[in-house]
Amino acid sequence: MRLSGKQISNPYLLRRIGTCLLILLLPSFTWSQANYTLEKSIPIKSVTSAAIDQKKHIYIADNDGNIIQYDSLGKRLLVFSPDKIGTVTALATSQTMRLFVFYRDFQEYVMLNRFLDQTSRQKFDLEGIGFVRLATLASDNNLWMFDENDLSIKKYNPQLNKVITKVALDLMLGGQQHEVIYLKEYQNLLYLVDKNSGIWVFDNLGNFKKKLVYKNIQWFTVVGKFMYIIQAQKIKKLGLYDVSKQEDVIKIDGKAAKVDSLPAFLFVTPTRLYHISSTQLAIYRNISHK
């Protein structure tokens, strides 16, 4: 081997150089290695929302208003059946194992503990709040919401019953038709996904950071340093912070995964991929994971 015009014959040094080259090449190699195979398929009722928590428990809200908890292998654990039946619009989990349940039709939200017992129910009944299309948990125990009446993001303090932050989006959206489908705070950043314009990113104070142009997104989720989107019936993996990296299409048994029916929900862990359609919970094992 030659380095800078000099011959290298030391076997130990050659091994060290080879190891360093392998480490440098490893990120680009592992980037496109996500390949899954079906492990289990569980029939379920019509789904309106879904979420995953830190323990990899899956929560699925059905068309009857029930919320079912499954473990990471698909075993049914707990069920929440509300006294007031309504369509669950959004679910969100917290670090303290609480489950946030938002009902758009009622303009209400419910908090459940880790046993899926209801601990509170509250209505968004405030002069500064119009029509809440989506709501989710903030990391500081407040709530984020997208108010469709004035096209704004608002942070709401439940204890004070007060809006403490407001970010106007009317100029950003430019008066174009919009369809906000996702709202989530992750690692001190707030992600708002508009199906028609893309992914809007804000810091945890509501300051605009950037916009990622991915149109016609059916679903969005963030895991580690990556984001996963469902777009044009494909599941795509993209860099969360380094958007210059080439996108990777997720594969099932070596072929590009295809999402045939909507709505669809997607969650990813280091060892599994969970795809929830209107009729089944499909659990895929990562066969490239070691």
Question: Would you kindly provide a written description of the structure presented here, covering whatever features stand out?
Answer:
The chain is mainly beta and 290 residues long. The chain has a single domain, classed as 6 Propeller (Neuraminidase), CATH 2.120.10. The protein is built from two helices and 28 strands. It has helices at 11-30, 170-173, and strands at residues 2-3, 6-7, 35-43, 47-52, 58-62, 67-70, 76-80, 90-93, 99-103, 108-112, 118-123, 132-137, 143-147, 152-157, 162-168, 180-186, 189-194, 198-203, 208-212, 217-223, 226-231, 234-239, 248-249, 251-252, 255-256, 265-268, 272-276, 280-286. A hairpin with a 4-residue loop joins β14 (152-157) and β15. The longest helix is centred in the first third of the chain and has 20 residues, at 11-30.
Distance between the termini: 32 Å
Instruction: Write down how many β-strands occur, each being a DSSP E stretch of 2 or more residues.
Output: 28
Number of helices: 2
Structural class: mainly beta
Mean pLDDT: 86
Considering DSSP H and I runs of 4 or more, what fraction of the residues is helical?
A: under 10%
Overall, the morphology is globular
Strand order of the largest sheet: 25-24-3-28-27-26
Order of helices and strands: EEHEEEEEEEEEEEEEHEEEEEEEEEEEEE
Indicate the CATH architecture.
Answer: 6 Propeller
Main sheet summary: 6 strands, mixed
Question: What Rg, in angstroms, do the CA atoms define?
Answer: 22 Å
Weakly predicted, low-confidence segments: 1-6, 16-32
CATH classification, class level? Mainly Beta
Give me the CATH fold name: Neuraminidase
Provide the number of structural domains.
Answer: 1
Q: Estimate what percentage of residues fall within beta strands.
A: over 45%
CATH superfamily, please?
TolB, C-terminal domain
